[in-house]
Amino acid sequence: MTKLTFDITPIAIIDTPFQQKFTIPRQPNLANAPGIVKFTPEFADPRCLKGIETFSHLWLLFIFHETLSRGWKAAVKAPRLGGNNTLGVFASRSTHRPNGIGMSVVKNEGVKDVDGQKVLLVSGVDLLNGTPIVDIKPYLPYADALDNATDPLERYASIPNREVTFSEQAASYLQSAHNRYPQLQQLIQDILRQDPRPAYKHKLNDDPKTYHAALYDLDVSWRVIDGRIHVSKIAPADS
Ligand code: SAM
Questions:
Q1: 166 and 120 in one domain?
Q2: Are residues 136 and 196 both part of a single domain?
Q3: Where in this chain does the record put each TsaA-like domain (predicted)?
Q4: How far is the CA of 16 from the centre of ligand 1 (A)?
Q5: In angstroms, what is the span from residue 164 Cα to ligand 1's centroid?
Q6: Whose CA is nearest to atom 27 of ligand 1?
Q7: Quick check: is 99 in a domain?
Q8: For ligand 1, what atom is nearest to the CA of residue 26?
Q9: Do residues 135 and 225 both lie within one domain?
Q10: What's the gap in Å between 125 CA and the centre of ligand 1?
Q11: E strands of 4-145, at which residues?
Q12: How many domains does the chain have?
């Protein structure tokens, strides 16, 4: 067979709150996480964005750049199926895939001018800060939303919905940071209610371990106590 290879050039880099993979939701729109798509000089041409404001949602195609060097796996563990069950890479949304390409539907929050450059605002992202975007396409409900689509494994993928509580310190930090990050409390709630711990820990309703979410330049400490997610501390990441 003829070997075909293609060069792919990022068209943009996306800024997101997520500084680490841990705590990023498994799919888009599970948290109202904002993203700022910043175009590279070659693609910062305003003509490329003409008409984009007419679409409510967009597909972002991107590279799983953080895990790319680890290559791909033909089969991936699916802990939610129980035991050591696996799924084929093409039957999964695994990050370890040939070509490392990811795709997410996100909400279009509009185009804005920042320092004379056009940036694209989106929300509902499941992407690491700094992820290279390789293409953007409009989401077309008539073609992309299929009423008769099924996912037989959906029942295994039920997403936890735990109550999230905040310590006095965390609540007062949120207040003091409100001007900089007005949606931060909602973002923390959206992310943590899904219990980002590994699936095998989900049955633990009291977990002695303190976990951390790296959001923006902040370190958010949390634990699972009595079935709830308790945010014990929010502090600058470098403190
Ligand atoms: N919606 C996309 C898809 O289906 O192609 C991504 C799904 S993937 C299961 C989502 C996970 O990818 C996130 O929870 C995060 O752990 C990981 N992730 C996000 N951005 C990444 C990046 N740039 N490099 C590697 N992993 C990333």
A1: no
A2: no
A3: 8-148
A4: 12
A5: 24
A6: 64
A7: yes
A8: 14
A9: no
A10: 10
A11: 12-15, 34-39, 57-63, 75-77, 86-88, 101-114, 117-123, 131-138
A12: 2
Is ipTM over 0.90?
yes
- Tell me, yes or no, whether 77 and 194 share the same domain: no
Beta bridge partners of 132: 13
Based on the domain organization, do 24 and 137 belong to the same domain?
Answer: yes
CA 111 vs. chain centroid, Å, equals 20
- Whether the per-residue pLDDT at 239 is higher than 90: the answer is no
Q: Is 7 part of any domain?
A: no
C-alpha 62 to ligand 1 mean position (Å): 9
At residue 224, what is the residue type? V
Count of Cβ atoms closer than 10 Å to residue 25 Cβ = 18
CA distance 192 to 52: 32
Domain around 111: 12-144
- For 15-44, what is each residue's pLDDT tens digit? 999 999 999 999 999 999 999 999 999 999
Is the domain of 131 the same as that of 72? yes
For ligand 1, the distance from its centroid to the CA atom of residue 2, given in whole angstroms, is 31
Are 121 and 168 found together in one domain? no
* pLDDT tens track for 167-217: 999 999 999 999 999 999 999 999 999 999 998 899 999 999 999 999 999
Give ∠ CA 67-71-73 in degrees, rounded to 5: 105
Q: Is 35 in the pocket of ligand 1 (CB under 6 A)?
A: no
In a domain, 84, yes or no: yes
* Pairing of the two strands 164-166 and 228-236: parallel
Q: Is 100 in the pocket of ligand 1 (CB under 6 A)?
A: no
In a shared domain, residues 134 and 218: no
